[in-house]
Structure formats: structure tokens, C-alpha cells
Design goal:
Length: 342
């Protein structure tokens, strides 16, 4: 009962947060102006967007396969591709559900759930690293534009108070203390024994990168994921006449900013992505809120449609694969029974 209530509260808060962010987005929008911008959109550029979006997913699946290979070399690319697509489909509906779904579809006797989950933590660590690299590159390439915004809205607020740093130190200390207690009381407490087992699996999953014989392809695939994200933003900018003068450096910055929005626990990034990109384009670049919202909507909803289509396709495909697998196992069992009876 307590777990069900917790889930209801968690998802309830998530949907309320999404609703608030959506309200913040739509409350000042001139919809006539927005619809005019939508009519003037150059849709041919969105073909390039779709191509880049699918390639990003292809590189993601290949990167994950590389992480899983040291754990179980029998895991094929198609299985990683389908697990990613179905997980992304779940993430559109319930925030935070993508990773458990992905892990569940890969988990086997040879690779337990927590180990698979550890590989996804490794993936996220690399994604955060590339978000940081992307921001640094954007700042270097366009310091005249981004520098004042960065100093005024990020460095100055952080430098004016020690509270964020105090919170960070406390979180690190509490996490370290919990990990120490889990291993110290392992075998003495059922709870800590279970936690220690989960941590062992996570460490094994995280260590899969270290066990790779050739790490260069992994780094190349990660780089290509972010190159495709940049091109997705670039093609979206070119599709909107008012924003078509913006270049790859701007696309790089906007793609990183959009990925930051994915941290906000709302279904499919709805509201958070639109609000953050709209505010950025209007305040930093000086365009109207309607133009900022048009860019965010084109980018987010086009990606959501691609995820929806690929997720449904992979889900149907996995059902057919599992059905055929079950039929083959039943036939094999009957054949064994027939041979033993003879």
C-alpha cells in the first residue's frame, strides 16, 4: 500500500510540475503569431532532422552494445536497439521508467538487472561529460554572445552564496556514508545486505567500460550521438525563417540546453524543454516568445513522434520474436519427449 501511494505521489507531482511548466509557456503566447510561424516553416529541412534523430538512436544502441559485450558477448545489436526504443516509449508516458524498462529487456541469467542498470549509469556519466564539453565549446566559439549570459545567470548566482556548495558536500558525504554502511553491515542486516548486492551489480556494470579491449569505438559513438543532436537543432533552426541565420555553434548550445531539460522529472520532458528553450531564445537571442516556442515545439514533438513510431515498431517486433522463441522451445521440448519415449 505504501509503495503504491509513493508511486501515485511521485507521478502526481511529476504531472503537476509538467502542467505548471506548460502554463508558464502558454500564458503569454500570441497564438495567431505562433500559427503564422508554423505555416511558414520550411518542412524540407525537417527531413534532415528526422535522419539525424534516427542516427543518434542508432549510435546510442551501438554504444550500449559495446558496454554490454564484456558482460555477455551474446547480446546482439537488435536487442539493444529494441530495448532502447521501448524504453524511450515508456519514458514519454512515465518519467524515470525508461531505464528500468531497458534493463528489464536485457536482463538475463548471465547479466542481472543491477548490472545492466550499472551500464546505463555509465552511459549517463558520459552524457553529462559531453553536455559539459558542449557548453564549453559553445562558450569558446561564441563568448561574445554566451559569456555575459553565463557570468550573469550562472557564475554570479553561484558565487554569491555558499548554499549550493554546502548542499553538494552534504549529498556527497551522505552518499559515501550510506555506501560504507551497506558494506560494513553486510551480512548483519537484510536491508544492507540487499543494498550491497545491488551496489556490486552497479559496480560491475560501471566497470564494463574498463574491461573493453578497444575503447575508441565507444568514444567515437558517444561523440557521434552529440554531433547528431547538434544537427537536429541545426535543421530545426533552418526550418524556421526567423532563426535560419543561426549557425552550428548556436545549434550546439541549444542541443546541450535541451538535454539539461531532460533532467526535470516530467513525462517526456513536456513543459520543461519548451520553457527552457523558449526563455533562452527570447532572452539570449532576442527573438519573440512565439518563435522560441515554435523552435522548442518542432524539436520536441518531432522527436517524440519518431520515438513513438520506433517504440511501437520495436514493441511489436519483440512480441513476435518472443512468440517465435516460445514456439521453438515448446517444439524442442516435445521433440525431446518423443525421443525419450522411443
Amino acid at each position: 500500500m505504501g509503495k503504491k501511494l509513493g508511486n501515485v505521489l511521485k507521478y502526481g507531482v511529476s504531472f503537476v510540475l509538467a502542467a505548471v511548466l506548460v502554463w508558464l509557456v502558454v500564458r503569454k503566447i500570441d497564438w495567431a503569431s505562433f500559427l503564422t510561424g508554423l505555416k511558414n516553416t520550411r518542412w524540407l529541412w525537417m527531413i534532415g532532422y528526422a535522419f539525424s534523430a534516427v542516427l543518434a538512436l542508432v549510435f546510442r544502441a551501438q554504444r550500449w552494445k559495446q558496454l554490454l559485450k564484456p558482460l555477455d558477448s551474446r547480446i546482439r545489436y537488435g536487442r539493444c536497439w529494441d530495448a532502447n526504443n521501448i524504453g524511450n516509449l515508456g519514458g514519454l508516458v512515465l518519467p524515470g521508467s525508461s531505464e528500468p524498462i531497458r534493463a528489464g529487456l536485457i536482463t538475463s541469467k548471465n547479466v542481472p538487472f543491477q548490472t545492466v542498470f550499472g551500464t546505463m549509469i555509465m552511459e549517463r556519466a558520459w552524457d553529462f561529460l559531453f553536455i559539459f564539453i558542449t557548453f564549453v565549446l559553445a562558450l569558446v566559439l561564441k563568448w561574445d554572445l554566451f559569456g555575459g549570459f553565463f557570468k550573469g545567470h550562472i557564475l554570479k548566482p553561484l558565487g554569491g552564496t555558499v548554499l549550493p556548495w554546502v548542499i553538494l558536500v552534504l549529498v556527497v558525504l551522505l552518499t559515501a556514508g550510506f555506501i560504507w554502511a551497506s558494506y560494513h553491515y553486510r551480512g548483519k542486516s537484510k536491508f544492507f545486505t540487499r543494498v550491497a548486492g545491488i551496489l556490486d551489480g552497479l559496480v560491475q556494470g560501471l566497470g564494463s567500460f574498463g574491461r573493453m579491449k578497444n575503447k575508441l569505438p565507444y568514444i567515437i559513438h558517444t561523440t557521434m550521438i552529440w554531433v547528431m543532436y547538434m544537427f537536429m537543432s541545426y535543421f530545426c533552426l533552418k526550418a524556421i525563417p526567423e532563426l535560419s541565420g543561426m549557425d552550428l555553434a548556436d545549434a550546439l548550445f541549444l542541443s546541450a540546453l535541451g538535454n539539461v531539460a531532460s533532467i526535470v522529472p516530467v513525462p517526456g520532458g513536456i513543459g520543461a524543454y519548451h520553457y527552457l528553450l523558449m526563455v533562452c531564445i527570447s532572452s539570449l537571442y532576442g527573438f519573440s516568445d512565439e518563435t522560441g516556442l515554435l523552435f522548442a515545439t518542432l524539436n520536441h514533438e518531432s522527436h517524440a513522434l519518431i520515438i513513438l513510431a520506433l517504440g511501437i515498431w520495436s514493441y511489436i517486433k519483440r512480441i513476435v520474436v518472443m512468440k517465435n522463441k516460445d514456439i521453438a522451445e515448446i517444439r524442442a521440448e516435445k521433440q525431446q519427449e518423443k525421443e525419450s519415449s522411443e
